[in-house]
């Protein structure tokens, strides 16, 4: 039986990464963050990293063709069609969603979780967010919940830092792009009957249990985490 195919969408700072870590543990399905994949490519100075760097540094979306190169490669390398996936930060444009649907035709994705939260809440969260600088770890902290030994990651010991694109002027730009380019995906998946809205101003545990309850209601998962 194939694995669950889930998209997690929502503004920057809505908690997509945190929910994906919880779901990945629960369902045993790969968590794929295109942002993490690009940060790793930039850190390695690979050819794709070099092409993506300027866009990322200025808080802009990377062009769709470059995103799809990375995603197509992950589909093959990680057998995502069969194993399922939790996509975090992908798709981010209608064109990317069209290409993903074509890859997954005829069934498409099973569900799309939209983490809903106000701009004020995410601006405050992002300004306080700190992340592990090791691109293979990427653990998330905040000024309110720092690592045990400040400021080294609890999981891998690497320095915990503020992302360059989490500074206020960059945050505003990324949120404007979200409204213009990514928010239309909400209507798209709602029209397909695949959208699950969750209030992301709640605590991470509450968001997880509400999202899970919706998947159970739709019979996309069972209590044991099997898809
Ligand atoms: P994230 O960690 O998801 O906020 O992504 C960090 C940066 O990576 C974004 O600001 C974009 O520059 C780039 N990026 C990640 N995923 C995508 C995507 N699906 N489409 C375009 N750019 C992306």
Walk me through the structure:
The structure is a single chain. With 227 residues, this protein is an alpha/beta fold. The protein has one domain: Rossmann fold, CATH 3.40.50. The strands form 2 sheets. It has a 5-stranded parallel beta sheet with strand order 2-3-1-4-8, with helices on both faces. Strand 5 and strand 6 form a beta hairpin. The chain is globular. Bound molecules: adenosine monophosphate (AMP). Adenosine monophosphate binds next to helix 2 and helix 3.
Give the key terms.
227 residues; alpha/beta; Rossmann fold; five-stranded parallel sheet; three-stranded antiparallel sheet; 10 helices; 8 strands; 48% helix; globular; binds adenosine monophosphate
Total helical segments:
10
Strand order of the largest sheet: 2-3-1-4-8
Please estimate the helix content: 40-55%
CATH architectural designation? 3-Layer(aba) Sandwich
Record field, number of beta strands? 8
Can you tell me the CATH superfamily?
P-loop containing nucleotide triphosphate hydrolases
Low-confidence stretches: none
CATH topology: Rossmann fold
CATH top level label: Alpha Beta
**Residue share in β-strands:** 5-15%
Q: What is the radius of gyration? A: 17 Å
The general outline is: globular
Total domains, how many?
Answer: 1
Structural class: alpha/beta
């Amino acid at each position: 039986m194939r694995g669950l195919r889930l998209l997690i969408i929502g503004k920057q700072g809505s908690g997509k990464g945190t929910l994906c870590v919880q779901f990945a543990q629960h369902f045993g399905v790969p968590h794929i963050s295109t942002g993490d994949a690009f940060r790793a490519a930039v850190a390695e100075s690979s050819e794709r990293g070099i092409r993506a760097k300027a866009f990322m540094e200025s808080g802009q979306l990377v062009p769709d063709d470059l995103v799809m190169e990375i995603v197509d490669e992950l589909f093959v390398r990680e057998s995502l069609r069969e194993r399922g996936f939790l996509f975090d930060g992908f798709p981010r444009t209608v064109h990317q969603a069209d290409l993903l649907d074509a890859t997954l035709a005829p069934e498409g994705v099973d569900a799309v979780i939209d983490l809903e939260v106000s701009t004020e809440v995410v601006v405050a969260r992002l300004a306080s967010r700190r992340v592990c600088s090791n691109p293979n770890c990427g653990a998330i902290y905040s000024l309110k919940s720092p690592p045990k030994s400040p400021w080294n990651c609890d999981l891998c010991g690497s320095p915990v830092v503020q992302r360059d694109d989490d500074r206020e002027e960059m945050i505003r730009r990324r949120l404007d792009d979200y409204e213009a380019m990514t928010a239309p995906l909400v209507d798209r998946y709602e029209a397909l009957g695949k959208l699950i809205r969750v209030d992301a101003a709640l605590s991470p545990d509450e968001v997880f249990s509400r999202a899970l309850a919706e998947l159970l209601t739709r019979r996309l998962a069972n209590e044991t985490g099997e898809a």
